[in-house]
């Protein structure tokens, strides 16, 4: 029995897949805290689709796909910001227009030379066939993203929730906003290898959403989200060997199951806790616990 459970570790491609998946899951978990609290879930979805033309162009020109994907991701983010600033359109409409345009362009480029680009690889990922060069790229992106987030998470939190106060304190709001977009684009490119463009948004949202239901402190939320992201990615990649299924699908399914369990059983913000009477009061009169500080609207970033 033990020998069977250890079988995946006998194969080099599985060890690489498990390691890379865990690393990507850790970064996505950290970044998902900002995406969840800032309401950027649709932005993550947009960037995951906007990188498709960059991948197609990189393949056609014989360049590393990560470079093309990162370039079009930043271009899409800048385009959405420009259109939002110059028009009265709501942000969701701007995101919808831009990311569908980029996705359509990518599909068009792929259809012009279908033999040069593996569409399934872009959409679903190919973590089991990842090359040494791609692993080095992912490690570089992950280490860089974790370093920036670790040093700037307090500033990024303040800019996300109260840009006016951040500007008053002397923070470069526009610069930090661009840093967050750049980190999101780079992480999307890295996660593209593991789960593909279709499921990357789940890795960027679900860990943070799960952690959000478990704590009211942002520092603790980061720790929980990183643990959830890395743990589910490691276990999902490992389990994919026995299911003989898509690694990305296993990872995201596991994250979703964990979210549903927390959604039901979280001690303060779960569905069961919200239905229970509080301090002798009827359930319909029970107040939800405060999630925000009274002075700024942001979770407690001091702990």
Automatic annotation (TrEMBL):
Does the entry feature the keyword Membrane, yes or no?
yes
CDD domains assigned to the protein according to its UniProt record, in alphabetical order: TM_ABC_iron-siderophores_like
Q: Which GO terms describe its biological process?
A: cellular response to iron ion; response to zinc ion; transmembrane transport
Concerning PANTHER family, the annotation shows:
ABC-TRANSPORTER METAL-BINDING PROTEIN (PTHR30477), IRON TRANSPORT SYSTEM MEMBRANE PROTEIN HI_0360-RELATED (PTHR30477:SF13)
* InterPro entries named among the record's database cross-references: ABC_BtuC-like, ABC_TroCD
**SUPFAM superfamilies for the chain:** ABC transporter involved in vitamin B12 uptake, BtuC (SSF81345)
Give the UniProt keywords, A-Z: Membrane, Transmembrane, Transmembrane helix, Transport
Task: Give the source's domain of life in one word.
Answer: Bacteria
**Keyword Transmembrane attached:** yes
Q: Where, per UniProt, does this protein localize?
A: Cell membrane; Membrane
Query: What is the protein named?
Result: Iron ABC transporter permease
Task: One Pfam family, please name it.
Answer: ABC-3
Give the family, as the similarity comment puts it: Belongs to the ABC-3 integral membrane protein family.
What membrane topology does this protein have?
Answer: Multi-pass membrane protein
Annotated stretches, region: Disordered: 275-303
Q: Where are the transmembrane segments?
A: 13-37, 57-81, 93-112, 124-149, 169-188, 194-214, 221-240, 246-266
Signal peptide boundaries: none
């Amino acid at each position: 029995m033990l020998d069977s459970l250890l079988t995946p570790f006998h194969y080099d491609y599985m060890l690489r897949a498990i390691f890379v998946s865990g690393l990507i899951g850790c970064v996505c978990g950290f970044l998902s805290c900002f995406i969840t609290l800032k309401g950027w879930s649709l932005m993550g979805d947009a960037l995951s689709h906007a990188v498709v033309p960059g991948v197609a162009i990189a393949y056609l020109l014989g360049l590393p796909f990560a470079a093309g994907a990162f370039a079009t991701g930043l271009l899409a983010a800048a385009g959405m910001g420009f259109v939002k600033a110059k028009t009265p359109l709501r942000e969701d409409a701007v995101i919808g227009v831009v990311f569908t345009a980029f996705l359509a362009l990518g599909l068009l480029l792929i259809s012009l030379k279908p033999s040069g680009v593996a569409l399934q690889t872009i959409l679903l990922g190919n973590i089991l066939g990842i090359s040494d060069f791609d692993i080095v790229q992912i490690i570089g992106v992950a280490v860089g993203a974790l370093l920036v987030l670790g040093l700037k998470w307090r500033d990024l939190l303040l800019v996300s929730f109260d840009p006016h106060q951040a500007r008053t304190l002397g923070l470069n709001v526009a610069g930090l906003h661009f840093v967050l977009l750049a980190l999101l684009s780079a992480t999307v490119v890295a996660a593209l290898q593991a789960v593909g463009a279709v499921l990357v948004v789940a890795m960027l949202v679900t860990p943070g959403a799960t952690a959000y239901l478990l704590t009211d402190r942002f520092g603790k939320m980061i720790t929980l989200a990183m643990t959830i992201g890395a743990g589910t990615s490691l276990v999902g990649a490992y389990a994919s060997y026995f299911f003989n299924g898509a690694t990305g699908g296993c990872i995201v399914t596991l994250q979703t199951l964990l979210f549903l369990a927390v959604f039901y059983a979280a001690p303060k913000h779960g569905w069961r806790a919200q239905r229970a009477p509080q301090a002798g009061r009827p359930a319909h009169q029970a107040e939800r616990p405060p999630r925000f500080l009274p002075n700024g609207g942001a979770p407690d970033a001091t702990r």
